[in-house]
Design brief:
Helix content: 40-55%
Order of helices and strands: HEEHEEEH
CATH superfamily: Dynein light chain 2a, cytoplasmic
Largest sheet: 5 strands, antiparallel
Number of helices: 3
CATH topology: Beta-Lactamase
Radius of gyration: 13 Å
Distance between the termini: 13 Å
Strand content: 25-35%
Strand order of the largest sheet: 2-1-5-4-3
CATH architecture: 2-Layer Sandwich
Number of domains: 1
Shape: globular
Length: 115
């Protein structure tokens, strides 16, 4: 799984990626931050809140979340019982990042299914 995330972070636009359980525990990550565990827990909480919001709005199932900040984006994608969280630079090619995230999600699902 580390290799899959490393391929994502090799993209010029991507500054970091973590794979988090819905319980907030980090499976693997490339954020290189002392606060990686806190970020993992907060990512799971934010994802859960957004999912609940979408359910309340009766807008169907959530596929992808992009949060834009002044410095870049934070993107979430559900991967079975896991959440892929990717951070990008300001002005990054969001379409390319999203395509690469979807590719990574398919690879992670195959890997998890083989266990």
């Amino acid at each position: 799984m580390e290799t899959i995330l490393q391929r994502l972070t090799d993209l010029d636009d991507v500054t970091g990626a973590i794979l988090v359980g819905k319980d907030g525990l980090i499976v693997t990550g490339t954020l290189h931050s002392e606060d990686e565990e806190v970020i993992g827990a907060m990512s799971a909480a934010a994802f859960g809140s957004i999912t609940n919001f979408i359910d309340q709005m009766s807008s169907g199932e959530m596929h992808h979340v992009i949060i834009e900040t002044k410095d870049g984006t934070i993107q979430f994608e559900e991967v079975g019982d896991l959440i892929l969280v990717v951070t990008t630079n300001k002005g990054s090619n969001l379409g390319r990042v999203r395509i690469e995230m979807k590719k990574a999600c398919r690879q992670i699902l195959k890997l998890v299914a083989s266990y």
